[in-house]
């Protein structure tokens, strides 16, 4: 609720951070087009020869042939090995940088207290700024569906940056928050988690990530027989966490990939791979079958207005 109404401060220092050189190799492995202007942030999957999703990352172009790839906490070693197998030069710099995520409608007001630098750069852009006395790479990216930034600084500045953000944000109602809060909010926005919702066995088209694939690569992909769908369970107290069976017209057809409770929408949410025409299913929770509606698009802020807000105007 603090993140929805004011701001939340999340410590994502554990996320994997990789410094990569070699545009040609990275472009060949990525589904999306990573050959963008310096300062652009690209959301993409790294794909195998069957178009299966081997990694789910953001790629920030820091220079002509210098990129920062950010991946999940547990996936750094996996992704380094993947990139190196494809002849891409990569260096794991996870421990070199702290990362704090400042997300919420008051994020701009909070950060503006600490810097005189221009914060009006757009969504999926990155810029080097100073926050107090701390050098920061600010990336306009979110994993919770609220306005804000990922803020990267050298690890030795981490405590100073955290304390500065807390001092500026606490009077505005900002609260420190954790990964469970992130998981609840990403379910509401339909953001996928690699290893659960998406794997090397699923393609971007099956996962509903076709928007993150460049046109020529998408055209060569096989049309999916099933797609990852969002389910809104009838029972608010019946929460699926993953692995629960899903049946369509009384017939088992799938299992829940991930699920939980969305506190901003007050609904129990789950995801499962289903035929594209499915509209109503049942989910097995706690030994009983719970009805669920199949819905399209994010259940929270479907127009993405909060993410793309311009509070400086």
UniProtKB/TrEMBL annotation:
Q: Which residues belong to any copy of the GCVT N-terminal domain?
A: 2-216
Q: Gene3D superfamilies this protein is in?
A: Aminomethyltransferase beta-barrel domains, Probable tRNA modification gtpase trme, domain 1
The residues that the entry says bind substrate are: 150
Pfam families with a match to the protein in the record:
GCV_T, GCV_T_C
InterPro entries xref list: GcvT/YgfZ/DmdA (IPR028896), GcvT/YgfZ_C (IPR029043), GcvT_C (IPR013977), GCVT_N (IPR006222), TrmE/GcvT-like (IPR027266)
Residues covered by the Aminomethyltransferase C-terminal domain: 228-301
Q: What is this protein called?
A: Aminomethyl transferase family protein
- Which organism is this entry from? Acrocarpospora phusangensis
């Amino acid at each position: 609720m603090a993140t929805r109404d004011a701001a939340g401060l999340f410590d994502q220092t554990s996320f994997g951070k990789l410094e990569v050189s070699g545009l040609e190799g990275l472009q060949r492995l990525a589904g999306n087009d990573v050959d963008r202007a310096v300062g652009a942030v690209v959301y993409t999957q790294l794909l195998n020869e069957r178009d299966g999703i081997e990694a789910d990352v953001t790629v920030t172009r820091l220079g002509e042939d210098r990129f920062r790839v950010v991946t999940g906490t547990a996936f750094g070693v996996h992704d380094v090995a993947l990139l190196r197998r494809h002849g891409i030069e990569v260096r794991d710099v996870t421990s070199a940088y702290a990362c704090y995520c400042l997300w919420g409608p008051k994020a701009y007001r909070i950060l503006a207290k600490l810097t005189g630098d221009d914060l009006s750069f757009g969504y999926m852009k990155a810029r080097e700024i100073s926050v107090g006395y701390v050098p920061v790479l600010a990336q306009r990216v979110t994993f919770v569906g609220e306005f804000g930034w990922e803020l990267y600084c050298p690890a030795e500045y981490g405590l100073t940056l955290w304390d500065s953000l807390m001092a500026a944000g606490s009077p505005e109602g900002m609260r420190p928050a954790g990964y469970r809060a992130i998981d609840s909010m990403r379910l509401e926005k339909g953001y996928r988690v690699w290893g659960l919702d998406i794997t090397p066995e699923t393609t971007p088209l099956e996962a509903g990530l076709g928007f993150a694939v460049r046109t020529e690569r998408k055209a060569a992909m096989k049309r999916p027989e099933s797609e990852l769908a969002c389910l809104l369970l009838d029972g608010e107290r019946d929460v699926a966490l993953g692995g629960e069976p899903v049946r369509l017209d009384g017939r088992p057809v799938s299992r829940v990939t991930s699920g939980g409770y969305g506190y901003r929408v007050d609904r129990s949410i789950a995801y499962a791979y289903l035929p594209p025409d499915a509209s109503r299913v049942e989910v097995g929770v706690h030994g009983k079958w719970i009805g669920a509606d199949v819905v399209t698009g994010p259940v929270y802020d479907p127009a993405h207005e909060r993410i793309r807000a311009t509070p400086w105007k």
